[in-house]
Amino acid sequence: MQLQTNSSSLQPLVDKLAYRTALGAEDRAAILALPFTVRMMERGQFIVRERDIATNSCLMLSGYSVRSKMTATGNRQIVAIHMKGELVDLQNSMLKVADHSVQMLTPGRIAVIPRDEIIRLTLDRPMVAHAMWIDTLVDASILREWVANVGRRDARTRVAHILCEFAVRLRVGGLATNTHYELPMTQDQLADATGLTAVHINRTLKGLEKEGLIERPNPRAVSIGDWRKLAEVGDFDTNYLHLRENEPALH
Amino acid sequence: MQLQTNSSSLQPLVDKLAYRTALGAEDRAAILALPFTVRMMERGQFIVRERDIATNSCLMLSGYSVRSKMTATGNRQIVAIHMKGELVDLQNSMLKVADHSVQMLTPGRIAVIPRDEIIRLTLDRPMVAHAMWIDTLVDASILREWVANVGRRDARTRVAHILCEFAVRLRVGGLATNTHYELPMTQDQLADATGLTAVHINRTLKGLEKEGLIERPNPRAVSIGDWRKLAEVGDFDTNYLHLRENEPALH
DNA sequence: CGTAGGCTTGAAAAGCGTCAATAGGAGTGG
DNA sequence: CCACTCCTATTGACGCTTTTCAAGCCTACG
């Protein structure tokens, strides 16, 4: 469903890349000049499925998406969550055969960019290539933290950790305040992201609530009662997110 | 400990990058022209520690290393294993503050390359930048598989899976035959890589042995009795390794 | 007003962890 | 060449976190 080709739509990508790499006016203009089409996506809709041959990269314009993998026994593991300004499917399109699926968590808009145009851009403009590379390295850092989270932390710590990560990433992305955010995931999805079961997620969330660490005004929102304590319980340190040094801390 | 500056030492890096990206003679020469120093490393020695400011990237010339993270409770999670030809610490050096440690699993030699020289090379030579980017993307793909392995597979499957991954990666790297390889990890280290305990690793390995799926001629070697079965038990598919299409399959 | 998807809760089982003791093997020094 | 030591592997018994199964509930929405 092709809607429009508004040339300012790629601004979130410029912002994301320029967050960590200094980009000159020409580099910025070159990114904005990438061809793309905007697509409206529904909740649950797939952007790519494992084993597809992906020839496009998609930029999240609004809404949330997840990357996930299925095991032989039919269990799902969510391996990453993406929000506005993030390029999903760079991975799959650059490596030809998709090694995981990408699916919308909420309705939203994405900008579909041909892979070959991104390759051309990176070959033409070394600083843009560098910025994309750095972005990929940060993604990998988050993946490492997730391996540790899922592999070596107990349920309470794991859940507190992921809630902290969301809080910080959403705040940095301008999508949340210090203490409150919309959590676009069901308990099933939280379970798939933490390697637990929905039942245990439910119990763990209730536990954190009872302790006063979080509040749930409604099932799709989280308010952090005591950030310091939650971060401590969640063994959370922002180091792995590689934020800018001047990024204000949460409290 | 600076030993020598033999200009052919970086050949494994050229081979690794050229495995997935076509590189011309000039690009190859530019990589080989990178300045470096060779260091002998002992078993257990750290290449970088979490929170260090890394200014070098290291290429494995021989031996094995692991990347790992520690949790607040003192548990360790190994998040990646590296062998000859792989660049460790690209991640840490490009992102300034290290988000994980890199440590030798065995004695070995590494080539230490200044980060700034790598950046310069990638800004000068777009195809080299592209090759390094692709390499980072494959690393990230392996991390995603590890998240799924540790998050959603039971002990038997997890262990079988990691044994399969080693078999394939070592064979592709020319470090193993079809059915046999040296496994440079203790059971403690295997536990840290799979999110299990050493005791349970021991029992699981014994179980796989009893089933005839593997044999252990000695504690540092693995022979695969029935590759097909092991891959099935381990829910293993090489897709996520993004091998070349002409790469012969194991059997 | 009915239905579907998600949330909540209980009871029981299972898988894996913990603790502890023993055994084996490689290297070291006398 | 033997005794000693350190590190790793092995095994048993027990306990606990998390899963599984199952039922009921709530709420949004057609």
Could you explain the architecture of this structure?
Two copies of one chain form a homodimer. Chain A is globular, with a radius of gyration of 18 Å. Chain A has two domains: 8-142, Jelly Rolls; 153-250, Winged helix-like DNA-binding domain superfamily/Winged helix DNA-binding domain (Arc Repressor Mutant, subunit A, Orthogonal Bundle), CATH 1.10.10. Chain A starts with 10 loop residues before the first helix and ends in an 18-residue tail after the last helix. Chain A has helices at residues 11-20, 25-32, 90-94, 115-124, 126-152, 155-172, 187-194, 198-210, 227-233, and strands spanning 37-41, 46-48, 56-60, 65-70, 76-82, 87-88, 101-104, 108-114, 180-182, 214-215, 221-224. With 251 residues, chain A is an alpha+beta fold. The model of chain A is unreliable at 1-5 (pLDDT under 50). In chain A, β10 and β11 form a beta hairpin. Chains A and B meet through β5, α3, α4 and α5 of A and β5, α3, α4 and α5 of B. The structure holds a DNA duplex (30 and 30 nucleotides).
